[in-house]
Write a structure and sequence with these properties.
With about 130 residues, this protein is mainly alpha-helical. The chain contains six helices and no strands. The longest helix is centred in the C-terminal third of the chain and has 16 residues.
């Protein structure tokens, strides 16, 4: 089996899930469970690593690998896949946020300063003048 078949199935999954790579991967896994040729072609380049992982699991005493999750057939009723649209809207608005620099809404305006704060600043000023 050639890689062309695998590439065709990947393109089909991407088209089916409108470019959502996560759902396309899940779809490929689901298809591969029913299509031994697809599974064999996908796995062949990674067989050494898969075998090493399995041997290490047995040697460490772990019995079974975790099950592979099945691909969801579709989104739950009433839900829309809007992740891509949300990202595009955020980019179009501009002013992207950097980590730690989030703006959590407009400032509430000037707040009064307590007398205790003013006294502390004046005390610091007096100490620095006496030196």
């Amino acid at each position: 089996m050639s890689w062309d078949y695998v590439e065709q199935k990947i393109k089909e999954a991407l088209h089916l899930h409108r470019g959502n790579s996560t759902r396309a991967r899940q779809q490929i896994i689901s298809w591969a469970m029913d299509d031994p040729k697809l599974l064999r072609t996908l796995v062949k380049p990674h067989m050494v690593g898969i075998t090493a992982h399995a041997v290490n699991r047995v040697m460490s005493g772990k019995r079974k690998p975790e099950p592979v999750p099945k691909a969801p057939e579709s989104l739950p009723e009433g839900e829309k896949d809007t992740l891509g649209l949300d990202i595009l809207k955020a980019i179009a608005k501009g002013g992207s946020v950097q980590f730690g620099q989030e703006n959590y809404g407009p400032a509430t305006g000037k707040k009064g300063v307590s007398q205790r704060h003013i006294d502390a600043i004046n005390q610091i000023i007096k100490k620095s003048e006496t030196k």
